[in-house]
Design brief:
The protein is an all-beta fold. It has two domains: 42 residues, N-terminal domain of TfIIb (Single Sheet); 49 residues. It is 0% helix and 28% strand. Strand 1 and strand 2 form a beta hairpin.
Length: 110
């Protein structure tokens, strides 16, 4: 049986069923009207730094904790300023800079 329902705009999984006039996600429980197409703009995640400030593309941030780089002996030191970050909005590692994917909880806006 093929699933012709759209993916959930909240968690992007395809475990969705129709209940009355709404679609319901079996995984996260999110409901949305069946007439509306899933909008990626509405589901866009707001990325906040460790202090709760909203981050945007091109912002400058400071690392607040020494971070070991996985698969390398390199360490990103506390106090390092990263200019011109990019947000990819996917999960925990929503901030990208210089090929590194960073968790926003270890950053603060400069």
């Amino acid at each position: 049986m093929s699933n012709t329902h759209p993916a959930c705009p909240q968690c992007t999984l395809e475990d969705v069923h129709r209940q009355g006039a709404n679609y319901v996600c079996d995984t996260c429980g999110y409901e949305w009207p069946a007439g509306e197409a899933a909008s990626t703009e509405d589901a866009a995640e707001i990325v906040r730094d460790s202090n709760g400030n909203v981050l945007a593309d091109g912002d400058t941030v400071v690392i607040i904790k020494d971070l070991k780089v996985k698969g390398s002996s390199t360490t990103l030191k506390v106090g390092t300023k990263l200019k011109g970050i990019r947000l990819n909005g996917s999960g925990d590692h929503a901030v990208e800079h210089g090929g590194y994917m960073l968790k926003q909880e270890f950053l603060r806006k400069a």
